[in-house]
TrEMBL record:
All residue ranges annotated as the PAS domain in the record: 223-267
SUPFAM superfamilies, alphabetized: Homeodomain-like, P-loop containing nucleoside triphosphate hydrolases, PrpR receptor domain-like, PYP-like sensor domain (PAS domain)
Cross-referenced Pfam families: AAA_lid_14, HTH_8, PrpR_N, Sigma54_activat
Residue ranges constituting the Sigma-54 factor interaction domain according to the UniProt record: 352-573
PROSITE patterns: PAS, SIGMA54_INTERACT_1, SIGMA54_INTERACT_4
Keywords assigned by UniProt, alphabetized: ATP-binding, Nucleotide-binding, Transcription, Transcription regulation
Keyword check for Transcription regulation: yes
Protein name (Swiss-Prot/TrEMBL): Sigma-54-dependent Fis family transcriptional regulator
């Protein structure tokens, strides 16, 4: 037959108001009526309390719950406070840590009454008093008072009660005085039994203590409810655990973020609730931390952790966290908008025109580099296609869908370059934009930042750049906030940075940070086989004879591919025929001797070109066969003002 708990209720309100919440006290006993006249005694207690404290605005309810001793570990009792006796109390305390439990004391007067009644009923026979230590403490001292032989047996485990009775029989005991279950076995083997009754005084004392604990518990529950309400309406998820890693707080936001909707989480080991992974590891670790970004399933969490201390002693740990997946998606959309506004790599390896094995090998090396996420230093003379290779590497990498941001370090003064790289806060300096401005490092987040002419940056900027590469975070000018960035650096130079390091013109630590992967671009004179195919690519609409191509191969092309491209563009403009022959090439090739006579120095050549084109820098650079980058560097070198 299935066992079910039996409930007997009695409740009495101190006031007439129906709004007064009742404090629920459960009397847990092994059989109905185990505590003699329990409900009548409770009614007397309530009436007495009402007379003694009429101003008290409290309601009480007592429920008698019948649970066999061997079933206690299977039943969850819901109450403000529990009262019980003897071994039942001990078992309840082992399985109910969250509810206050009051032990009904078996006082000396109760033992004396039971022993006197035992002597009256059975005569002067040896009595085995069996019970929990808190129930029969000092009973052996009553032997001389009552003139009754007494043998005490401490019972801490109900499973050994039968053996304890057998031992009592072996010791010559004739009567067993104990609790319900022990007495049942004693009766089955022919022993006479006495139940240790609970006196009115003991029961009242338990009720007084239960009332006190119930009120304290209710106050604590109300306080906890207020805190829980605050936590449940907090934006952040909050989980707290005790030292045994059992959940003490698991707010609504935490359940929503983690998609865990079990209502009975308090007291459950957190290892049985959360998925295995870094989030759980952080929660159960000993270390505190300010902020970590961790994955949990398909979402990303921003997590903070702190220890919980009471009077200087640690009692548990707490984590607060937010789902930043949406923020990352929003950030991704912003990055895409930035990407569509121009921070995009246009070229890929398929756009590089070549025929020589040398360039083919260089491209293969660059493709291998693109699959890594290390910084790259591209070294090559002016016009060898450093930016084209940088863009191709980006478009062949895992960062291809994110921004490619390029900046020429030689084209801007130090102060302007610094603000462009790192951005600035609102009010950082006179003329600063309202709301501040993002720097190129922020714009290139999760993408690639191409730093052309890296050898031109000042020592001050070298130090700042080194810190960014080490810490992966930047601080805007005039701000005190740290911004984490995930950027791959591709730097380019036509200088020998190692010589600059030896001459203390470039920081060695920065050089090694930038040159994790080196890519050397050969000058055009080292792969002349590519000149004809390049010329054909540059002059798609016009035919060029084989003799003309061979003539082009004989030139030095100090400006490399860019100079060749500019020359081919000039031929297309100046030659009216649909075919370019060797005579056209000879006619328009720059004459070195004439050039040397006309332009005595590089500075004068630049000034002459600027004057000729009314200080239009782009046209002047094109005539000189220089890239805009090189032209800016020359202007800076010779202090030529173009305002």
């Amino acid at each position: 037959m299935d066992w079910k708990p039996v409930l007997l209720k009695f409740k009495l309100r101190v006031t007439e108001s129906g709004e007064i919440p009742l404090i629920n006290i459960k009397l847990v006993v092994p059989r109905k009526g185990y505590i003699k006249d329990a409900m009548e005694r409770f009614e007397e207690f309530i009436l007495q309390e009402a007379r003694d404290a009429p101003e008290e605005n409290i309601g009480f309810q007592l429920e008698e719950v019948v649970i066999p001793t061997d079933k206690i570990h299977k039943v969850k009792v819901d109450a403000d406070v529990i009262i019980s006796r003897g071994l039942v109390t001990k078992l309840l305390k082992e399985h109910n840590e969250s509810i206050p439990i009051v032990d009904i004391p078996v006082q000396g007067i109760d033992l004396i009454r039971s022993l006197v009644e035992c002597k009256e009923r059975f005569g002067r026979k040896k009595v085995a008093v069996i019970g929990a230590a808190n129930m029969i403490y000092g009973v052996e001292n009553l032997e001389s008072i009552i003139d009754l032989p007494i043998q005490k047996y401490i019972l801490n485990d109900i499973t050994v009660s039968n053996r304890t009775v057998d031992q009592a029989v072996s010791d010559g005991c004739e009567i067993v005085m104990s609790g319900l279950n022990t007495n049942k076995y004693a009766e089955r083997i022919g022993m006479q039994t006495m139940l240790i009754e609970t006196g009115k005084e003991s029961f009242r004392q338990a009720l007084v203590e239960a009332k006190r604990l119930a009120i304290v518990s209710r106050i604590e529950q109300e306080k906890a409810k207020r805190y829980q309400t605050i936590l449940d309406h907090a934006y952040e998820g909050v989980i707290a655990v005790d030292l045994k890693k059992r959940v003490s707080v698991f707010n609504s936001s935490a359940q929503k973020i983690l998609s865990i909707y079990d209502k009975n989480l308090i007291g459950v080991p957190v290892t049985g609730i959360l998925n295995k992974g870094k989030f759980l590891d952080l929660l159960i670790s000993r270390n505190d931390f300010q902020e970590e970004i961790v994955s949990y399933g398909t979402i990303q969490l921003s997590v903070k952790k702190a220890g919980i201390f009471l009077k200087g002693k640690k009692t548990g740990d707490m984590v607060a966290f937010q789902d930043v997946t949406g923020i990352q998606e929003m950030e991704g959309n912003i990055r895409k908008k930035i990407h569509s506004r121009g921070h995009v790599a246009k070229y890929s390896f398929n756009d590089i025109v070549f025929k020589s094995e040398l360039i083919g090998q260089t491209i293969e090396t660059a493709k291998l580099y693109s699959k890594a996420d290390s910084n790259i230093l591209i070294v090559g003379e002016t016009g060898t296609g450093k930016e084209m290779f940088a863009q191709s590497i980006h478009n062949n990498s895992n960062r291809r869908n994110n921004p490619f941001v390029a900046i020429n370090c030689a084209a801007l003064p130090e102060s302007l370059l610094e603000s462009e790289l790192f951005g600035y806060a609102e009010g950082a300096f006179t003329g600063a934009m309202k709301g501040g401005k993002q720097g190129f490092f922020e714009l290139a987040h999760r993408g690639t930042l191409f730093l052309d002419e890296i050898g031109e940056i000042s020592p001050n900027l070298q130090s700042r750049l080194l810190r960014v590469l080490q810490e992966r975070e930047i601080m805007r000018i005039g701000d005190d906030k740290i911004i984490p960035v995930d950027v791959r650096i591709i730097a380019a130079t036509n200088k020998n940075l190692m010589d600059m390091v030896k001459n203390n013109e470039f920081r060695a630590d920065l050089f090694y940070r930038l040159s994790v992967l080196d890519l050397q671009l050969p000058p055009l004179r080292e792969h002349r086989k590519d000149i004809p195919v390049l010329a054909e690519a540059f002059m798609k609409k016009i035919q060029i004879t084989d003799e003309a191509k061979e003539r082009l191969k004989e030139e030095e092309w100090e400006g490399n591919v860019r100079q060749l491209q500019n020359f081919c563009e000039r031929l297309m403009v100046l030659c009216k025929d649909q075919e370019i022959n060797v005579l056209d090439v000879e006619k328009h090739l720059p004459k070195r001797a004439e050039t040397d006579r006309t332009y005595v120095s590089e500075k004068e050549r630049i000034l002459k070109a600027l004057e000729k084109h009314h200080f239009h820098k782009g046209k002047a650079a094109s005539e000189l066969g220089m890239s805009r980058t090189t032209f800016w560097r020359k202007l800076k070198k010779w202090n030529i003002e173009t305002f």
